[in-house]
Amino acid sequence: MYYRGTGEMGGGGERNNDKRRRNDSADDFMSSSSEELFQSLQGDKASKLNMSKDVPFDFLPFSQMSWIPESTSQLEVLKVSELRLACQQRRLPKSGTKAKLIERLRNWSVIEAQRLVYNRERREAAKEILRTENTLLLNKQRQEVQRKSETRNVELDTGSLYNEAKRREMRGDIDGAKATLRKLLKLTPEDGRVVRRIARMSSPLEAKQVLQESLRKYPNNGYLWHGLAQLSMEYDSRQAKAYYKKGCANGCVNSFHALGGLEFKEGNVREAAKLFRKGIKLFPENHRLYHALGSLQIQAGLYNQALTSFKQGLKYAPNYGKSFMMLGLSYLEYQYNDDILLAKYYVKEAVKANPMFERGWLALALLDDNPVSVYQRAILTYEGLQRGKRSRATKNKWASVYQALALRPELTGRESYLVLKKASQLFSDDWIVWFNLAKRCSSKTRSIAAFERCLEVAGDW
To answer: 3-state SS string over 103-135?
Structure first.
């Protein structure tokens, strides 16, 4: 036979006896010191649980083996083979006498019970933190509304003009939108947001001229430098970096976020973290910087620091920003703490804060026992909120939810086809939708037509 741990082959009664003596010695040590080891590992928390033979089993996860009794005293009526099977399924040593097996299961049950209590306390603490943060955010929003009401007349004029420009742009009236923004620029000549929006609706050459003209008048406007950096990213990333740095130097919070993200993509993790921390120091209430720093810390394996960053960001984030923070917390609980229940709770809260957060629905489907039901609820929510609104068909992120549902093995070929057909109507400029639809068409003619549409759309990307 092969001796585990020695790598030697051998036989005979003498070696078998030596093996039994070693197993008995190990069991003697385990039995005599199990309670002592448990106390040293669990500390004062374990002392709250009863280590006697009356330890209850009714709250322990014995669902895998339903014949396990509900009290320790009933373990004595089981056979040694049954006790060994119970130990094996719980990854415990299965050697030793019946008394040692019972003792081993008792110690395991107490540790497992404490683990469940600990996880339950962590979940309750997480819920309490979110309730507190919601209260603080509500008070902050009330103060913000009161502050804005003091300058309501001026903001009403600028706000109405800005919204009118957005409506014209959505309708395709680019010239009308630019004319409205130029009127707004006369009221607020230093508003870099307005200049950047005009630049986005212009050709690259015209956009550059608009931004440079404004910078000659207001060279200390960081948002104008940020807009020029975004424009330069398409053809010269080094020049864009220089503009982003000027944006940071002139107090543009978006430049800290964009430059940090660019440094991180290029592998300069320390420089990216330095930029995010500097931005947080200057703008401590900007939730996007907290999320960017937390995401970077996850990539670097700094899970505890990422947890702190996301929880700090929750204090200042609006509902759509909260959804990103809680998705990050969910990832940490699932990947680092192996707490699926708390991970699922955070994702549910993310979707509750922002029902249009498609990444939250996709994550919830991965954690749920019935992903098809989650995808269906997500699609019903999306279509209900979009009903009566003018939707943007180009490159909509929600196409991924429809495709995830269509690719589920639980659906029949016909059901997958209908889901993708609906997606092709809603997101007609998404070539991946057309590609998947072409593969599921039962008719060769329809499949060819869908594939041709796929190639046509892909050429426009």
So the answer is: HHHHHHHHHHHHHHHHHHHHHHHHHHHHHHHHH
